[in-house]
Amino acid sequence: MRPYLLLTPGPLTTSETVKQVMMSDWCTWDEDYNVEIVEKIRQELVSLASSRPEEYTAVLMQGSGTFCVEAALNSVVRPDDFLLIAANGAYGKRMGTIADYHHLNHYLMQFDETQAVDPKEIDRYLSEHPEVTHVSVVHCETTTGVLNPLEAIASVVKRHGKVLIVDAMSSFGGVPIDMATLGIDFLISSANKCIQGVPGFGFVLARRSLLEKCKGVARSLSLDLYDQWDVMEKGHGKWRFTSPTHVVRAFMQALKELKEEGGVSARHARYCENHRRLVEGMRALHFQTLLPDSDQSPVITSFYYPTKDFNFKDFYRKLKEKGFVIYPGKISQADTFRIGNIGDVYPDDFVRLVETIKTLQLQ
Ligand SMILES: *Cc1c(COP(=O)(O)O)cnc(C)c1O
Fold it and tell me: What is the pTM of this model?
């Protein structure tokens, strides 16, 4: 059932067992589904995200990850509020686009795509702009693979007493994060990234006391995070509109497999090893990484084209024939391609990948 491995950070390669559990149909309002699957998923997500689970709650939302980012921003930031968005890639900029669409008062603080977000710049801006009420940032910028210094950013934002919203789409489940210790108020991720489910919904983990106050804030019906949460809470796992039942069942299985692997720290260790094997092997073949090792996440790695006349399309096609699907680059300043390290993929897969690239180079 696997013509090739997806070395793309979402959708990614999932296990056979995750795919298998989608072979039965579930009734969207039946207790077997709501109580036994949806409620268990919500509890599990909160305990994965926070050492004080009682302070947090989970909302699942149909659609891709962006739907959840949009649901969160438009349901949490009020007309009189002011949102500071720190961006160093496409996903940070997308939060700016969402803020534009919903006419949120905001400022998009832009950093170079090859640099990490600088907490000192956020500190300076917050000192000079007391009107800011909320700060949002991407944890792992999948555009390049840079891992922003979440701990330092959270510490600055909390010192200024602002609400912190984190797009942890491509890191949650694969990089340890404790919302309670860091003081994160809203954290957004989706089914098809480090939890290793299939695409179809995302989720927002929220500080309960803040979400409770968000009734009527949203300017969208289907992306009303409060209303979605309210129906799920009162209905014990009921979704407001049609639920992606098969995807949710697959996600439940993926959570079980995360636990069996040893939880987030074990998965993080595997991703780091995947990344290490990849980078060591590629450097031995004279490929260079876009980022310095200090800013690099274990999620996705950007490499420069090895030569000016490098034919990415040809490289892509040949690798696909050999069983590996990779990603094109996503930045304008340099010619790059990207290789994802997450999913049901293991260090040996990266050893095989590097060997395959070596034989392509020799042709
Ligand atoms: C995947 C991803 C998203 C969501 O993208 P979708 O295409 O809407 O799923 C948002 N932010 C980051 C950092 C991501 O990696």
Answer: 0.97
